[in-house]
Write a structure and sequence with these properties.
Elements (H helix, E strand, L loop, with lengths): L4 E5 L6 E5 L5 E4 L2 H7 L3 E7 L3 E4 L4 E7 L2 E6 L5 E6 L4 E5 L11 E5 L24
Parallel strand pairs: 3-10
Antiparallel strand pairs: 1-2, 2-5, 3-4, 4-9, 6-7, 7-8, 8-9
Keywords: Lyase, Metal-binding, Zinc
Family: Belongs to the Gfa family.
GO molecular function: carbon-sulfur lyase activity; metal ion binding
Length: about 130
C-alpha cells in the first residue's frame, strides 16, 4: 500500500509543502498567541518533522513566540503554517493550510483557559485548560 501524502500551502502559494505518513487528529488551540496570530482559534495537526518537505522555504519567516517554541509563517501573505518545539522531532501543521480532502477530524481543545470571551465551545469534545495530560 502506498504511503499517504498530504499537501498544503500558504494563501499566496509562495510556500508549499508535503508531509508523508499519518497525521494526528486536529486539536484546536485557544491560547492568546494563537488567537492573536490567526485572528481566532487555531486548528493544527501534527507529524514527524522528518516527514515534512517544504518548497519555497526562503519565503518562510520565523518567530520564537516563547523560549521553547518557534512559529513559521509565509513572509509574503502572513499565513501561519507551522509550530515546533525548539529541538523537537515533530511539527504542528496548521490544518487550514492543508489541501482537501484531509481525512482529519477534531479531537480536542487546548488552552481553553485563555479562549476569547466572544464565543462558546459547544461541540462536546474534551477541553483542557492548558496542555492536555500526557
Amino acid at each position: 500500500m502506498a504511503e499517504q501524502v498530504h499537501r498544503g500551502r500558504c494563501a499566496c502559494g509562495a510556500v508549499t509543502y508535503e508531509v508523508a505518513g499519518p497525521l494526528r487528529p486536529v486539536s484546536i488551540c485557544h491560547c492568546d498567541t494563537c488567537r492573536r496570530q490567526a485572528g481566532h482559534q487555531l486548528a493544527a495537526t501534527n507529524a514527524a518533522l522528518a516527514a515534512l518537505t517544504i518548497q519555497g522555504e526562503d519565503n518562510l519567516a520565523e518567530w520564537q513566540a516563547t523560549p521553547d517554541a518557534v512559529r513559521r509563517f509565509c513572509r509574503n501573505c502572513g499565513s501561519p503554517l507551522f509550530w515546533q518545539r525548539v529541538g523537537g522531532s515533530t511539527v504542528a501543521i496548521m490544518a487550514g493550510s492543508l489541501d482537501r480532502p484531509t481525512g482529519l477530524s477534531v479531537s480536542h481543545h487546548i488552552f481553553v483557559a485563555e479562549k476569547g470571551d466572544y464565543y462558546e465551545i459547544a461541540d462536546g469534545l474534551p477541553q483542557h485548560p492548558h496542555w492536555p495530560p500526557r
